[in-house]
Design brief:
Blueprint lengths: L2 H21 L8 H21 L10 H29 L14
Helix pairs in contact: 1-2, 2-3
Length: 105
């Protein structure tokens, strides 16, 4: 098993535990732990999609398909910047700069 496999397995387990706690109503989606792990998971998956599938190792995948996968990774990173990060910063009463696209979660 490669190192990134172990890392993503760890992230999946944490997301599964968080989902279970939310389903059992022990935690909410506004919990600081859920927000932090959601941000880490989205950043990790977004960067992975952008880096792994854009590489020229996959000759059988068309350029358009690789481009769509790259955009999917970009959208995950955009979601962190407009959804998760403002929510996390608002928990600590940190205001975002005026040029930030989303001011309140």
């Amino acid at each position: 098993m490669l190192k990134y496999h172990i890392y993503f397995l760890f992230l999946k387990v944490i997301i599964f535990v968080q989902f279970s706690l939310i389903f059992l109503q022990k935690e909410s989606v506004n919990s600081i732990y859920y927000i932090i792990f959601d941000i880490i998971f989205k950043i990790s998956l977004g960067l992975f999609l952008m880096a792994f599938f854009v590489a020229q190792r996959f000759r059988e995948i068309d350029f358009i398909d690789r481009y769509i996968i790259f955009l999917a990774g970009s959208l995950l990173l955009f979601d962190v910047g407009t959804g998760g990060l403002p929510k996390l910063l608002s928990k600590y009463n940190i205001t975002l700069p005026s040029w930030w696209p989303v001011q309140k979660p």
